[in-house]
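Example 3.2
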Amino acid sequence: MAGEWINMLSKVLYIDLTKKRYWIEDRRDLFERWLGGIGVATQLYKEEVSRRADPLGPENVIILSVGPLTGVFPMASKTVAVFKSPLNGFFAESHAGGRSASAIRFAGYGAIVIRGVSERPVYLIIEPGRVRFRDAGALWGVRSAETVGRILREVTGGAGVRSILRIGGAGEKLVRYAMVMVETFRHFGRMGLGAVFGSKKLKGLVIIAGRNYRIPNTRKYLELYQKIFKLTMGPGTRKYHDLGTAENVAALNAIGALPTRNFSSGRFESASEISGEKLVETVLARRVACSACPVACIHLAAIREEYETEPFMYKTEFISYDYEPIYALGSNLGIGDRIGMLKLLKAVEDWGLDAISTGVVLAWATEAQEKGLITKDETLLDLRWGDWKTYLKAIQYIVQQPNEFYKVLALGVEEASKRYGGADFALAFNKVEPAGYLTGPLYFISLAIGSRHSHLDAGAYSLDQKLLSTGASLPSPKEAVERIVEEEAWRQILSSLVICFFARGVYKADLVAATLDSLGYSYSEDELKKLGREIYLEKQKLKREEGFSAKNLSIPGRLYQVDTPLGKIDRRYVEEALAYFDQLIKEG
């Protein structure tokens, strides 16, 4: 095993917000057995979090973890966050890029565990061997996560080698789908990490790097690095650079898989106006990359507006866009106005909301008002498909919560439908609003059993699309689950290294084994695959201990009514798959 390299990764920083103390432990035991990233984070969660812990109570923890390839090989650029989700009360994970992973690694840590609750708002400055607790009273109440970042950049050192994580108003107000912003254009978006930050009175983290590491086998490493660099600049990642994930808008619309007006259709008549192609042509300002990534998939749009109080004076705002926010705040709300859609993306960024959940919640509210289940007495607004100006106000109300309706809406779409009706068209899986692929049954099965509730949980939308392109028949429910689990099990290795999933086509088992060998590890391809399955089962068993059961999930009725590229989804097929999944996990 990689003795020296593991020693450089195996330090875990523990922070107690209640007592304002910190300490460092060498957890080589975990990093030797579970590699890093999600493998180690899952074990730390098992140690730290009671199965009955309140997600918004002091017993919940925030775990940030990186892996052996972090900052060393191309596209090893992600940080894994693990916590108990305030949306559904189960083990959850979220991934983010930016500079967070490199900053943690080069501050000298493989993982950070944040415990307890602070009496007063606080932000932390994390450096090699030291944590400083700083009063955030002046920042508490600053609703814009971007503004908080600007302030922290001004008052802390480490420019160029630091990462800044922070929440906006949504996290402070404990909106269950609040996100954590990283730098300015990346996020821990899914599962409500921002609300966990808010519950701990933790406004932000500034992580400052300062360590250097010596590669064990420099010659072998450099040869591999050059090979991987060329592969990551090849056809497999070109689309992420050229159009970004927004390329999916036109492609999914063409096959009838672009969720539109609350998943009532898979085709949007104005898809071309909000497509990746049109955005590049009309508003793209520049591309940005995460640390240690040559691809630059982050696309920034520039919009120019006149100041309301100063005629002929203009401001230019830069807004990051990706496929998921475009679907959620574009086609799913019936919005074909590019500038209006971008303003909604900017609003969720400022308030610190998960774009996917926000769009799905607003789509449900629009349909519920349309059907008379709620009225303007609840919404305070006339919600209409395509009316982005009214949706801007509704986003503000989700955070400010001016009445009982918006307090409930801040709990998520499933809770809102329990109170006001409309469960059939309340799009949620295990209380989490879905990512935007109306491709077929395998994708929705993967969402129901996932831990991230991201399109990259098993990537089963691609399994649906492969069935479509080949004309193959649906696999049996048992075969479908086994394919999903096999794919997601391998992704646990990528999430332990930690590799961006956009590089999943590059980092195959043989190449992963070679990268680890260059760092002194010794894993065969079969050993890696076995470890991936073990990590996957560890996560699923944790959720079972917390009360999760796939066969007891309620799948929204809308998904059995709408046409997908593979036709209508058969309820019995999904139910059999979920029952088999429970059996599979139980048997291990």
